[in-house]
């Protein structure tokens, strides 16, 4: 059983890609059952040990909306922060920022919508008025020395509105960057994007600077979309160990791009990630046992039961 792919350097690709791990937050928030906080803390520790340098740990969303992350404060108290590893958290508003500051968080993320309907359903705001909610959060965070990342959902399509106009995504994205966010993650929340669409959207932004990508695999396009984004110059890719997660506010959103599937492809292309694939597979197998279901990741399915997976 092969535990690492045969490496042949791909043309037109970056030498190194940063995998922005979202499993503990975006992955676990969509689980039907609440995962014990001690399991979450071990999950985060295992991810750091596997080589991750960015682990989105939790969210300070109101527990009424995302009960799976109601233990955010306790989790942050339990996590032993490894030097050189970033542990950002998602915050929806100023109250969330207050809690993040109380726990010594050094980096936050905010969550916007590229469509009117999703902004209303997810944020109870219009496409334009959502910025009034973000402005004080970003300003205060920057004033306290925090880094701020921005997510934009429904960048490729919306289940209620259909395909999202490129100009609309760019308008929202540039507005967030203008607030002072250091990076913009373009989210294919329901997984309808295709490689041509990805290239067109990055081109509409004028290039890949300050852009990251976040793909869901609803239509099996996540890896091909990622490869296209890399060829367009993007070097930061969001992924979830084991492929767990989705979006609790969009029923058609299935799991995230699996970190292991991404790493298998990147390592096969000679792109460095700093991640240890066998350790990731072992972690996903361990987590799947605690979630009571198999990992959606194809690489985990292929390697998870291999007796020599650690070799």
Automatic annotation (TrEMBL):
<dbReference type="GO" id="GO:0004419">
    <property type="term" value="F:hydroxymethylglutaryl-CoA lyase activity"/>
</dbReference>
<dbReference type="GO" id="GO:0006552">
    <property type="term" value="P:L-leucine catabolic process"/>
</dbReference>
<feature type="domain" description="Pyruvate carboxyltransferase">
    <location>
        <begin position="17"/>
        <end position="281"/>
    </location>
</feature>
<dbReference type="GO" id="GO:0046872">
    <property type="term" value="F:metal ion binding"/>
</dbReference>
<dbReference type="InterPro" id="IPR000891">
    <property type="entry name" value="PYR_CT"/>
</dbReference>
<keyword id="KW-0479">Metal-binding</keyword>
<keyword id="KW-0456">Lyase</keyword>
<dbReference type="GO" id="GO:0046951">
    <property type="term" value="P:ketone body biosynthetic process"/>
</dbReference>
<protein>
    <submittedName>
        <fullName>Hydroxymethylglutaryl-CoA lyase</fullName>
        <ecNumber>4.1.3.4</ecNumber>
    </submittedName>
</protein>
<dbReference type="InterPro" id="IPR013785">
    <property type="entry name" value="Aldolase_TIM"/>
</dbReference>
<dbReference type="InterPro" id="IPR043594">
    <property type="entry name" value="HMGL"/>
</dbReference>
<comment type="similarity">
    <text>Belongs to the HMG-CoA lyase family.</text>
</comment>
<dbReference type="Pfam" id="PF00682">
    <property type="entry name" value="HMGL-like"/>
</dbReference>
